[in-house]
């Protein structure tokens, strides 16, 4: 009886913790909800403009989950790009995710089978929220990170399908609509830079990107910029870790 009572109590506590994790993940992902539904809708509208309806939007949003690649895919499909060209373009567009993976590799290792979906669901905005790690006390980090990725994915799917339906029923000028993704990323970057520990990596990223653009041109800067960012971060890793630890201690002391 005692063992059964303990089991029920543990199960209830686990359910409460899971509910708390869901609530926490939803709250921190609200900016992404607003951005992804808008951005996903923009993608769905553009996809519909080239003759692909809601079912195609659903399929692409479920299986690709890369806003920049999906927007580029609209042009690839419209321009009848070859499979080889599509593969190379996809690699170049998404190579930046390798940097995110390096930063989260230790955290993902502790997540069991969930890590495979978490790797798939890793986007710019999801990464920003996972690194920020604003979970309540008592919530498992792996569960929290998993739920952020899942919720962001659902937001994107909902936006994409809604946009495809809207595009099939409404007629309007779609010029500039793909800027929604850039705007969302800038908002999240601005919020991240409000914390002192995030400013140095942001400056490194901006400087490396500008240098690569000046050296290789806007059309060819992505790969050199990413390699340069990875190299600088690896060289400065210990110093950045020390600065982050110091910033965390200052925050704890202030509280």
UniProtKB/TrEMBL annotation:
- Biological processes, Gene Ontology terms: L-valine transmembrane transport
**Which InterPro entries does this one have?**
Brnchd-chn_aa_trnsp_permease
Predominant location: membrane
Q: Which organism is it from?
A: Victivallis vadensis
Please name the PANTHER family in this protein's record.
INNER MEMBRANE PROTEIN YGAZ
Alphabetical UniProt keywords: Cell membrane, Membrane, Transmembrane, Transmembrane helix, Transport
Q: Name one GO cellular component term.
A: plasma membrane
Q: Where in the cell is it found?
A: Cell membrane
Any one Pfam family match given in the protein's UniProt record, by short name: AzlC
Instruction: Report how it sits in the membrane.
Output: Multi-pass membrane protein
Q: Which family, according to the similarity comment?
A: Belongs to the AzlC family.
Q: Where are the transmembrane segments?
A: 24-48, 55-81, 87-108, 144-166, 202-235
Q: What is this protein called?
A: 4-azaleucine resistance transporter AzlC
